[in-house]
């Protein structure tokens, strides 16, 4: 193994990207486009959802809930006519009608009083046969045709109710747990500020690097074979290990540049949070790139020309997009297909990146994923070396 | 000393026999032309000699070393049939890569690069992207890449295919210069006539050597005026 020779291949490949601006642009712009398009499509928080609010409550609680509603998420029009408001939902003119009934406050008060006396009764073992009063309720008439919109409405109303109840409890010097519909959210990781894009960005980075590296290596190696340069390298004193490592280094570097660009865009445009070590995140991406570069060399040997080479692309992309946990967790993949997900190396790249970026985990907690990626890289690079060593 | 010595070299691809017990001897310093029609086994021979293919049976010695040998790879230069240079790199970057592959020190690469660019008349194109060059220029860059490390033995696989007559003449001038420097050149071609530049030729047909010798000798033996006629005569089997 000669380091200078290995680096000669690396430098040659990197210079090629410097000259071929269009390919270099593809390498950087494609992942950028992916994060922007996916980010805006799935990651953007829903805002300005048109809703009608009908407040028939004679007490004061509904008013406070309405005031506590996030007015960025919901654009509220006050109304007095339930029938008309529901009709607007039916007609698709508005997403929801939120109705606070006349007894909203009184039911809440009754419920709280009942609960308090029930607690006392239990303590004094004086069993009284009382009928529980009706829980205070909000009626939401919802257009569920768009889950994103429906989810945003439900979340906004729930949050407003929780905040209001917490406020009231504080004012009355009572614990919020005595108040019905008390929902407290405890986050192990992330929190109310965690957006879908935070979850999505580590996946997109891994996916983009995997895709670009595999595609470009397949094409470059088909060229090497067809153009005779590979024959020339193999007739030279350069060893197969030096050739493969030279390429691997080049793609490692390119993968790093790609992820720096994507990460910067995700931070600047979507304000994503990175809880863990960014260098570790880059290291994982580099491992992914190197492994898939090996895969690209292997696949290229089954392609006689560039046309056959690009036929591999959908074959690689679809399982990775659907089964490797990019959009939805692998646990939600039908059991029959799940095993495929577990043998896709990208899955471990995505898992590792998410753990680093969202949970702030270190190498001690993601050693399993890293081991899998190292083994994958060693296998594909080793097989590539054997493939090049093979003489007809 | 013999630069090349093959012993009953046979290469089969499935049922097809590309080389049939070929025994070839090339002296050092010779310009040896391996002639024959398409499919006669010329490229297969060159690839076996460069250790890109392994023979089915028989043995090969290159510069006195039995193949496969890593040492010998430092001494040989190889120009494949295809363009075999990187199109998205400059002429300089291509030469630099091959210089580094042969572990030449930086100063020597620089010196040899200048010599090679002068030799193939591309001094002004050093920093041009190969993809912007004409076909003939690419061929010249490819030759320069095969020569940068001053090999003792040079394999040229069909270097004049698809090359215009003027450049072909130039190429033969290059090859004559190299043989004058004592480099052994093995060249394949199916343009029989240009092989009269060679000091020795071997005529291949269906993987067998059907005649070998100085071009004049072969023409005399077959009573023909050109190597092409000689080949056709030999193929018909009317050698004296």
Task: For this entry, give a set of tags.
A: mainly alpha, 15 helices, B: alpha/beta, five-stranded antiparallel sheet, 7 helices
Task: Show the helix and strand layout.
The complex is a heterodimer of chains A (392) and B (240).
Chain A: H1 3-19, H2 21-43, E1 49-55, H3 61-68, E2 74-79, H4 82-90, E3 96-100, H5 104-123, E4 139-142, H6 147-171, H7 196-227, H8 229-235, H9 240-270, H10 278-300, H11 306-310, H12 312-323, H13 338-343, H14 345-359, H15 367-389
Parallel strand pairs in A: 1-2, 1-3
Antiparallel strand pairs in A: 3-4
Helix pairs in contact in A: 1-9, 2-7, 2-9, 3-6, 7-9, 7-10, 7-12, 7-14, 9-10, 9-15, 10-14, 10-15, 14-15
Chain B: E1 2-13, E2 16-22, E3 25-27, E4 31-35, H1 42-49, E5 57-62, E6 65-66, E7 76-79, H2 91-101, H3 106-119, H4 135-147, E8 153-157, H5 165-180, E9 184-189, E10 200-205, E11 208-213, H6 215-222, H7 227-236
Parallel strand pairs in B: 4-9, 4-10, 7-8, 8-9
Antiparallel strand pairs in B: 1-2, 1-3, 1-5, 5-6, 10-11
Helix pairs in contact in B: 2-3, 2-4, 3-4, 6-7
Describe the structure.
The complex is a heterodimer of chains A (392) and B (240). Helix content of chain A is 65%, strand content 6%. Chain A has helices at 3-19, 21-43, 61-68, 82-90, 104-123, 147-171, 196-227, 229-235, 240-270, 278-300, 306-310, 312-323, 338-343, 345-359, 367-389, and strands at residues 49-55, 74-79, 96-100, 139-142. Chain A has a four-stranded mixed sheet, sandwiched between helices. In chain A, helix 3 (61-68) links the parallel strand 1 and strand 2 (74-79). In chain A, helix 10 (278-300) packs antiparallel against helix 14 (345-359). Chain B has seven helices and eleven strands. In chain B, a hairpin with a 2-residue loop joins strand 1 (2-13) and strand 2. Chain B has helices at 42-49, 91-101, 106-119, 135-147, 165-180, 215-222, 227-236; strands at 2-13, 16-22, 25-27, 31-35, 57-62, 65-66, 76-79, 153-157, 184-189, 200-205, 208-213. In chain B, strands 7-8-9-4-10-11 form a six-stranded mixed sheet, sandwiched between helices. In chain B, strands 1, 2, 3, 5 and 6 form a five-stranded antiparallel sheet that branches. By secondary structure, chain B is an alpha/beta fold. Chain A binds chain B through residues 2, 4-5, 7-9, 11-12, 15-16, 19-20, 23, 226-229, 231-238, 391-392, and chain B through 13, 47, 50-54, 70, 73-74, 76, 78-90, 93, 96-98, 100-103, 129, 145-146, 155.
């Amino acid at each position: 193994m000669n380091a200078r020779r290995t680096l000669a291949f690396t430098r040659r490949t990197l210079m090629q990207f410097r000259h071929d601006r269009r390919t270099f642009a593809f390498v950087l712009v494609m992942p950028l486009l992916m994060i922007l398009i996916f980010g805006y499509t799935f990651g953007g928080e829903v805002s300005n959802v048109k809703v009608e609010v009908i407040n028939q409550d004679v007490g004061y609680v509904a008013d406070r809930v309405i005031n506590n509603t996030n007015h960025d998420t919901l654009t509220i029009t006050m109304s007095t006519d339930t029938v008309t408001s529901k009709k607007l939902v039916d007609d698709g003119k508005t997403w929801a009608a939120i109705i606070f009934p006349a007894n909203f406050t009184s039911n809440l008060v009754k419920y709280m009083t009942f609960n308090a006396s029930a607690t006392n009764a239990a303590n004094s073992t004086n069993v009284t046969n009382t009928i529980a009063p009706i829980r205070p309720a909000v009626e939401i008439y919802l257009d569920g045709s768009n889950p994103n919109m429906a989810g945003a409405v439900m979340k906004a109303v729930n949050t407003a109710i929780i905040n209001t109840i917490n406020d009231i409890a504080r004012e009355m010097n009572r614990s919020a747990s005595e108040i019905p519909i008390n929902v407290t959210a405890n986050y192990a990781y992330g929190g109310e500020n965690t957006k879908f894009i935070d979850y999505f960005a580590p996946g997109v980075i891994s996916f983009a690097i995997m895709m670009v590296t595999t595609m470009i290596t397949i094409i470059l190696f088909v060229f090497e074979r067809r153009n005779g340069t590979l024959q020339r390298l193999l007739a030279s004193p350069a060893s197969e290990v030096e050739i493969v490592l030279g390429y691997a280094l080049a793609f490692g570097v390119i993968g790093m540049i790609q992820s720096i660009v994507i990460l910067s865009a995700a931070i600047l445009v979507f304000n994503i949070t990175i809880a863990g070590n960014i260098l570790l995140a880059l290291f994982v991406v580099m491992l992914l790139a190197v492994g898939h570069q090996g895969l690209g060399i292997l696949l290229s040997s089954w392609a006689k020309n560039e046309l056959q080479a690009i036929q591999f692309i959908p074959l690689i992309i679809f399982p990775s997009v659907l089964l490797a946990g990019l959009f939805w967790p692998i646990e939600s993949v039908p059991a029959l297909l799940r095993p495929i997900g577990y043998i896709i190396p990208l899955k471990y790249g995505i898992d590792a990146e998410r753990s680093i970026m969202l949970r702030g985990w270190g190498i001690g907690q993601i050693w399993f994923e890293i081991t899998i990626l190292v083994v994958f890289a060693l296998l594909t690079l080793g097989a590539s070396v054997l493939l090049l060593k093979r003489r007809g | 000393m013999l630069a090349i010595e093959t012993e009953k070299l046979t290469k089969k691809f499935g049922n097809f026999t590309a080389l049939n017990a070929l025994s070839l001897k090339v002296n050092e310093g010779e310009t040896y032309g391996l002639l024959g029609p398409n499919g006669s086994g010329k490229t297969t021979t060159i690839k076996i000699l460069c250790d890109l293919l392994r023979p089915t049976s028989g043995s090969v010695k290159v510069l006195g070393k039995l193949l496969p040998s890593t040492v010998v790879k430092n001494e040989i230069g190889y120009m494949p049939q295809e363009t075999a240079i990187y199109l998205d790199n400059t002429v300089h970057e291509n030469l630099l890569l091959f210089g580094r592959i042969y572990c030449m020190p930086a100063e020597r690469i620089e010196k040899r690069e200048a010599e090679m660019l002068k030799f193939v008349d591309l001094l002004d194109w050093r920093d041009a992207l190969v993809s912007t060059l004409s076909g003939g220029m690419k061929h010249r860059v490819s030759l320069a890449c095969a020569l940068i490390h001053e090999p003792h033995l040079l394999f040229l696989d069909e270097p004049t295919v698809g090359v215009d007559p003027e450049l072909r003449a130039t190429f033969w001038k290059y090859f004559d210069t190299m043989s004058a420097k004592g480099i052994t050149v093995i060249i394949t071609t199916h343009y029989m006539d240009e092989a009269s530049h060679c000091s020795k030729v071997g005529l291949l047909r269906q993987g067998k050597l059907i005649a070998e010798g100085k071009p004049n000798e072969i023409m005399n033996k077959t009573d023909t005026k050109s190597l092409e006629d000689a080949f056709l005569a030999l193929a018909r089997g009317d050698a004296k």
